[in-house]
UniProtKB/TrEMBL annotation:
Belongs to the class-V pyridoxal-phosphate-dependent aminotransferase family. The keyword Transferase applies. This is Alanine--glyoxylate aminotransferase family protein. GO terms for biological process: glycine biosynthetic process, by transamination of glyoxylate. Signal peptide: none annotated. It comes from the Bacteria. SUPFAM superfamilies: PLP-dependent transferases.
């Protein structure tokens, strides 16, 4: 039997990513493909850089979208700033901090691990102690918004510590960009990476990054070549540099960049502060509804990400069966727990275009139905009323 075209169903994506892609972005993806060195495309590249500077709240000249997913943005930061024999302090309060350690090790550098309990923000005092104990550390790396737990860390204080102890800061903002306050210049972040599939409501496959002047100086004065040819910022600058003639480096994902451009235009139209407020409002409504269902959050309210809601699975409720029923009966996706939280928590995303009132209502009613079908007692009408009071 011949294989025919693939036509996916319409899903409501409320997991840890990807999020729902806005119809305007889907339309942008289908626009005519032009050459990656076409003068019009080069002009759009410049606009993408300007829009990313707004999203990151930075004036960094080296701000661009890496032609690969957020994991490549992470690798780009580490391989450009670390050399063999360097030392990096890495904060781990979830899965994605451990991935940072993998990058440090593969660069031939030494990783000094600072652990914090999962579901908690990075322990600032423990980080300072590690910096004092390792005065030769070159980098301090941490996750701003830990997608595996739903906890947000104090990036401003951590970056201040990095400056105080003469370290470069590398910050993972994959889940935070566009969803919670992020000020790259104000906080003094040296290298930052993100993804397009979370609060930007775009398709996966591109990683916005930004490097400070201090970071650029380190990259340009390396003793050893960057171990990744594709991610070497010295080479990429020839293609993504400011104005003028562009040197061929790779064939950019042209249509995917159309989508990113449209998503950033939409973010500019909404305004960063309004986007942050929308995510907070939807979270507050969802939290009220889930609490009314008897569901408790993993993270204390003070450190809780509005766009990634990590909740404990009620006793007696089967994790996999609930998620399967949500997908089959409601075409609704939520995420499972990772690592230490596997089988213990659900991760519910309210990111970008997914952070809408109708999605909050759908999630509460569908989740209540799936749990009730397993004998769990809850009042869905009371839960919906609690959410509605905040919408």
């Amino acid at each position: 039997m011949p294989i025919t075209s693939f036509h996916p169903p319409h899903r409501t994506l409320m997991g840890p990513g990807p999020s729902d892609v806005h119809p305007r972005i889907l339309e942008a993806l289908g626009r005519p493909t032009i050459g990656h060195l076409d003068p019009l495309f080069v002009g759009m590249m410049d606009e993408c850089k300007a829009l990313l500077k707004y999203a990151f709240q930075t004036e960094n000249a080296l701000t661009l979208p890496v032609s690969a997913p957020g994991s490549a943005g992470m690798e780009a930061c580490f391989v450009n700033l670390l050399e063999r024999g360097d030392k990096a302090i890495v904060c781990v309060n979830g899965v994605f901090g451990t991935r940072m350690i993998e990058n440090v090790v593969r660069c031939g550098a030494e990783a000094i691990r600072v652990d914090t309990d999962w579901g908690k923000p990075v322990d600032v005092a423990a980080v300072e102690a590690a910096l004092k104990a390792n005065p030769d550390a070159k980098v301090l790396a941490f996750v701003h918004a830990e997608t595996s737990t739903g906890a947000v860390s104090d990036a401003e204080k951590l970056c201040q510590l990095a400056q105080q102890y003469d370290c470069l800061s590398i910050v993972d903002t994959v889940t935070s960009l566009g969803g919670v306050p992020l000020y790259v210049d104000k906080w003094g972040v040296d290298a930052v990476y993100s993804g397009t599939q979370k609060c930007l409501s775009c398709t996966p496959g591109i990683s916005p990054v930004s490097f400070s002047d201090k970071a650029i100086a380190v990259i340009k004065s390396r003793k050893q070549p960057v171990q990744s040819w594709f991610l070497d910022m010295n080479l990429i600058l020839g293609y993504w540099g400011e104005g003028g003639k562009r040197a061929y480096h790779h064939t950019a994902p042209i249509n995917a960049l159309y989508g990113l451009h449209e998503s950033l235009v939409m973010l500019q139209e909404e305004g960063l502060e309004h986007a942050w407020a929308r995510h907070r409002t939807m979270h507050n409504a969802l939290a009220a509804g889930l609490n009314a269902l008897g569901i408790e959050f993993v993270v204390d309210a003070e450190y809780r990400l509005p766009q990634l809601n990590s909740v404990w699975i009620p006793e007696g409720v089967d994790d996999a069966k609930v998620r399967a029923q949500l997908l089959e009966e409601f075409s609704l996706e939520i995420g499972a727990g990772l690592g230490d939280f596997a089988g213990k928590v659900w991760r519910i995303g309210l990111m970008g275009f997914s952070a809408r009132a109708e999605n909050v209502r759908l999630l509460i009613s569908a989740l209540a139905k799936a749990m009730q079908d397993q004998g769990y007692q809850c009042d869905v009408e009371a839960a919906l009323a609690a959410a509605e009071a905040l919408l």
